[in-house]
Design a protein that fits this description.
single chain; mainly alpha; 146 residues
């Protein structure tokens, strides 16, 4: 999976795929600034807090996308910590890559998910679709298809 740390130019909307629940958890923990600590440690703190008392935890990808700067490739493996955390994270803060991403990725505000929509709860996961989300270009296209 690939995550990109972005700043939209419009307000964050709940239930719209912008990690607002994770942003709220971070604000509860630390206000408007992340502590100057290892991002892996921060992600696990956020994960514990956000998933406290939840039978099905939300994923770590939003947390990683918010905490790790730049563009990060997350290599998940179900055999590693139950697939909850990536087995490997590779991040890039290369300015040329960031400029390219800024030119090709555009965040557009869309409507919020309907009330009652809870993808982690519904678990409509199809391994064939998940496998297709491996490389940056292909995953962007497959996300649109999905």
């Amino acid at each position: 999976m690939v995550v990109v740390s972005l700043e939209p130019r419009f307000r964050f909307m709940d239930r719209s795929g912008m990690a607002t629940s994770t942003r709220k958890t971070i604000a509860r923990l630390w206000g408007d600034r992340l502590p100057d600590e290892d991002p892996a440690v921060l992600v696990r703190e956020i994960f514990r807090e956000e998933n406290r008392d939840r039978p099905d935890p939300s994923g770590s990808q939003d947390m990683i996308g918010l905490v790790y700067p730049g563009i990060s490739r997350l290599d998940y493996d179900a055999r590693y910590e139950g697939g909850v955390f990536p087995a490997h994270i590779e991040s890039s803060q290369d300015p040329a890559t960031a400029r390219w991403v800024e030119k090709v990725l555009h965040i557009l505000p869309v409507g919020q998910s309907p009330d009652g929509c809870d993808p982690p709860e519904q678990k409509r996961l199809d391994p064939a679709w998940i496998r297709r989300l491996g490389a940056l270009g292909a995953s962007l296209n497959a996300c649109m298809d999905c």
